[in-house]
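Re-run requested by the PI after the first attempt was lost when the workstation crashed. Everything re-entered from the original request form. Ligand of interest: nicotinamide-adenine-dinucleotide.
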Amino acid sequence: MLFRAIQIQVRCMSSRSKVGFIGLGNMGGPMALNLVRKGHPVVVYDVFPESMTQLTDEGAIMVHHPAEVAEKADRIITMLPTSAHVKEVYQGEQGVFKSAKTGSLLIDCSTIEPDVSFNLSEEALKKGCVFLDAPVSGGTVGAKAGTLTFMVGGPENEYESAKPLLQDMGKNVVYCGKAGSGQAAKICNNMLLAISMIGTAETMNLGLRLGLDPKLLAGILNTSTGRCWSSEVYNPVPGILPNVPSSNNYEGGFGTALMTKDLGLAQTAATTTGTTIPLGSLAHQLYRLMVTRGLGKKDFSAIYAFLQEMENAK
Ligand code: NAD
């Protein structure tokens, strides 16, 4: 107990100690940039060196593998695509666990299987470190603006010590419970997001076919009971909102392959808990179809274009 209290104190005292950041893609890149801009000394690593250019231009230090990040920093954030990538980064030959210092705080913000988060937290504990799962909501827009919501799982006192760092990248930091609980909350959110995005896409498509102006229809939905984040903030129809992927050929944003992965996590969770998720399962299959048609890298709002493509093939 006393040992743990000393560890936390050490981290609090060194709140400007180096922060390691691994995985600098659509989300991790802008999150790490916010830390640099808030004055944190940041050490970065990504398998694609080009993804670190802007960060190093603004003062981050680039290293060559995750173990080197752990040698240089005792607070490490990871933002990687899937469970397999996260396991590789922590447990691989040159992984974080190879050289993590005692008392290090390891925060994984990727969306992965709750069981993998739980197992990594157990392994971290054996190495004298703390592992928190802290997946995010808010998309690339929230990552850039520093307004993300973090859903945190792990020991509550460790959540408290991680909070100031997470607040430098987000607006809401919510404690969800034991290790893996952050992932559970995130999986539920994304299943609803996929369902509401598909609903918005089919609704907009039907309205257009009925001869309605898309901006007019979006405006009506957004002041009526059909309103949701997908209709209001992230409308899937090109030209309705200026700074969203649908108005940029569905580039950037949240990839369809990643949404498909999250729906797969929901499906596994539903099977494990014996829960019925008919719409979640249907959403999973629709997004899988999009991936098989080569749309995995497009933003998940491209479901609108996909529906139109299926109709045009009639
Ligand atoms: P991304 O594919 O854009 O970025 C992932 C980064 O990880 C890439 O730069 C890749 O090179 C790097 N990477 C992969 N393997 C690596 C390894 N072994 N070592 C170091 N770096 C490695 O993905 P993203 O959109 O940033 O999403 C990351 C996570 O955040 C995913 O789990 C996703 O589900 C979740 N998420 C994404 C969004 C979004 O809107 N994009 C929103 C919320 C949550």
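Saved to the shared folder this time. Residues 1-13 have pLDDT under 50 and may be disordered.
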